Amino acid sequence: MSWRHLKFLLLYSPRWLYLLPGSMLFAAGGIAMALIAAHRVALDIHTMAYAGAGMILGFQMLLLAAFTKFLGMRAGWLPADAVQERWAARFTLEHALIAGGLLFLAGLGMALHALQLWAGVDYGALDPRATMRWVVPSVTAMAMGGELALAGFFFEALRLIPTKPR
Questions:
Q1: C-alpha distances in Å from residue 56, one per residue of 8, 9, 46, 79
Q2: Model pTM?
Q3: pLDDT tens digits for 147-160?
């Protein structure tokens, strides 16, 4: 199989390029982060940072899966999908801004808690193992919240593409 052929197959199959790997990466990162934050596994904050990065990358891949599928349907090079059409009708800029804002605020709340922990030691030396259990999820949530809000704007731009008759 040539690179050209593989590239063609991947570009016309957002499920295999983005959706399935993104789902697995997001889920694995989320589970790992939750287990590490709750002290349920012997892994530590360094692994938690990688888990957060995995969640962010997986989230981006899920958004790209949805956008690629929507674009392919609008352009006529992917078949219509009732589930995708219902999702697209419900995913508005306003919903994305609200959800993204709430996710960002949740991250900001965790960041304020980490700041409170620092204030509790008179802004002196911190135990990174305790503080980073709040900081890593905070940064992850804020990044995904910002990404979701911006994705709402991108999706609105995709809606402007005229639908090609099938």
A1: 26, 25, 16, 29
A2: 0.89
A3: 999 999 999 999 99
